[in-house]
């Protein structure tokens, strides 16, 4: 796979970098993994479970939005509930939400490039 670039970002993403990464974008400090109505529907279908089951085990309300739950691994270290800790990869890859699909091209990283460089071995600086 070739280098992924996006207008407005002075870094690129090399998908091959994921092979050597232990899931830094799915593990770390606690954060929000937002899912919208359509993504909740996709998740429900992907997992073949009811909305009640999904709400009980995998997502939670944060303010007026919904986030995928996290699992606490250690003090200040959390993993997305869907991250497969043995295989070191997303357990719902085809149904992952937009937030995960668009990483590392988040507005936040336009001004905080150092943070994503530290976290993600797949980033290539121009
Ligand atoms: S849904 Fe998948 S890609 Fe997104 S944070 Fe969870 S494990 Fe990572």
UniProtKB/TrEMBL annotation:
PANTHER family: PUTATIVE-RELATED, YKGJ FAMILY CYSTEINE CLUSTER PROTEIN
Protein name: Zinc/iron-chelating domain-containing protein
Source domain of life: Bacteria
InterPro entries named among the record's database cross-references: Puta_zinc/iron-chelating_dom
């Amino acid at each position: 796979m070739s280098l992924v670039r996006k207008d407005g970002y002075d870094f690129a993403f090399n998908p091959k970098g994921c092979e050597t990464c232990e899931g830094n974008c799915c593990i770390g400090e606690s954060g929000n993994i937002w899912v919208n109505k359509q993504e909740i529907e996709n998740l429900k279908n992907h997992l073949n479970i009811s909305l009640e089951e999904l709400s009980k085990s995998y997502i939670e309300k944060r303010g007026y939005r919904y986030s995928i739950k996290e699992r606490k691994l250690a003090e200040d270290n959390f993993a997305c509930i869907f991250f497969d800790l043995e295989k070191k990869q997303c357990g719902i890859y085809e149904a992952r939400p937009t937030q995960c699909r668009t990483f590392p091209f988040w507005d936040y990283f336009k001004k905080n490039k150092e943070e994503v460089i530290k976290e993600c071995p797949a980033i290539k600086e121009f």
